[in-house]
C-alpha cells in the first residue's frame, strides 16, 4: 500500500517537472521572438532613417545647385549698349574713285569732230543703321547686327571737274565752233556722269569691298561702345 502511494507521488512530481520545463522553454521562445522582432524593427528604422536623410540631402543639394546656377547666370548678364548706334543714319564705310573714258569719232557727229575725254568721279558707300536690326544676347555676350547692304550716297557723289582731262580734240579748221564744242563737252560729261553712277551702284568689286569694310567698322563700333565687355562677340549680317 505504501509503495503504491510513493509511485503515485513520483509520477505527479515528474508531470510537474515536465510542465515547468515546458513553461520555461515556452517563455524562452517568446523572449527570443520578441528580441528578434525588436532587432528587425531597429533595422527597419535605421534603414528608413538613412533613406530619409539621403533624400533630404539630395533635395537640399539640388536646390542649392539650382540657386547657384541661377545666380551665376545672372552675374554673366551685362548691359550691351546699342541704342545710340541704331540712331546713325549714314555710316560711311567706303570711299571710291573711278574714271570713265568718253570717245566720240567723226562719224558720230555732224561736225566731223574727234573727241576723247577722261572724266574722274568719286563717291561714298554708306550703311543706314536706322534700318538695321540688332539681336542682343546679354547672357552670352553676343550681338547680331542685321544691316542693309551698303549703297552709294547720292549726296556725296560727283564728278571731279578740276581733274577732267581732254585726251584728244580734233576738228576741221573751217568747221569748228566754240558753241558746238561746248555742247559736245556737256553731252560727254552727262554720259560720263551716268556711267560712273551706274558703276558705283552695281560694280561687285565695290560692293564686296564696302561690305567687308562695313563688317569691320560696325563690329569695332559696337565693341568700342561696349569696351567694358572684352569677350563681346559681334556678327554682322547683310539684308536686302
How would you portray this structure in words?
The protein has 240 residues and is an alpha+beta fold. It has helices at 2-76, 178-202, 204-225; strands at 91-104, 114-127, 133-137, 142-148, 151-152, 158-159, 165-170, 233-239. The strands form 2 sheets. Strands 1, 2, 5, 6 and 7 form a 5-stranded antiparallel beta sheet that branches. A 3-stranded mixed beta sheet has the order 3-4-8, covered by helices on one side.
Structural class from helices and strands?
Answer: alpha+beta
How would the global form be characterised?
rod-shaped
Give the radius of gyration: 51 Å
Strand count, sense and closure of the main sheet? 5 strands, antiparallel
How many strand units?
A: 8
Which range does the strand content fall in? 15-25%
Distance between the termini: 137 Å
What order do the SSEs take from the amino end to the carboxyl end, as H and E?
Answer: HEEEEEEEHHE
Number of helices: 3
Low-confidence stretches: 1-7, 68-75
Average pLDDT, rounded to a whole number, is 77
Helix content: 40-55%
Write the layout of secondary structure elements.
Layout: H1 2-76, E1 91-104, E2 114-127, E3 133-137, E4 142-148, E5 151-152, E6 158-159, E7 165-170, H2 178-202, H3 204-225, E8 233-239
Parallel strand pairs: 4-8
Antiparallel strand pairs: 1-2, 2-5, 2-6, 2-7, 3-4
Amino acid at each position: 500500500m505504501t509503495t503504491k502511494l510513493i509511485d503515485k507521488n513520483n509520477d505527479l512530481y515528474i508531470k510537474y517537472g515536465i510542465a515547468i520545463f515546458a513553461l520555461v522553454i515556452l517563455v524562452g521562445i517568446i523572449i527570443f521572438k520578441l528580441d528578434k522582432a525588436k532587432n528587425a524593427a531597429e533595422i527597419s528604422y535605421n534603414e528608413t532613417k538613412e533613406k530619409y536623410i539621403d533624400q533630404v540631402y539630395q533635395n537640399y543639394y539640388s536646390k542649392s545647385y539650382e540657386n547657384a546656377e541661377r545666380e551665376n547666370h545672372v552675374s554673366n548678364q551685362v548691359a550691351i549698349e546699342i541704342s545710340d548706334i541704331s540712331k546713325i543714319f549714314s555710316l560711311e564705310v567706303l570711299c571710291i574713285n573711278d574714271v570713265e573714258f568718253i570717245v566720240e569719232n567723226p562719224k558720230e557727229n555732224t561736225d566731223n569732230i574727234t573727241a576723247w575725254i577722261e572724266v574722274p568721279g568719286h563717291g561714298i558707300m554708306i550703311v543706314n543703321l536706322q534700318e538695321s536690326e540688332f539681336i542682343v544676347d546679354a547672357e552670352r555676350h553676343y550681338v547680331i547686327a542685321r544691316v542693309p547692304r551698303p549703297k552709294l550716297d547720292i549726296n556725296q557723289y560727283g564728278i571731279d571737274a578740276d581733274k577732267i582731262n581732254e585726251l584728244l580734240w580734233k576738228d576741221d579748221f573751217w568747221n569748228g565752233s566754240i558753241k558746238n564744242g561746248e555742247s559736245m563737252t556737256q553731252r560727254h560729261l552727262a554720259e560720263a556722269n551716268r556711267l560712273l553712277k551706274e558703276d558705283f551702284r552695281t560694280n561687285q568689286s565695290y560692293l564686296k569691298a564696302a561690305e567687308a569694310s562695313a563688317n569691320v567698322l560696325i563690329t569695332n563700333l559696337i565693341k568700342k561702345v561696349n569696351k567694358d565687355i572684352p569677350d563681346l562677340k559681334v556678327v554682322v549680317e547683310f539684308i536686302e
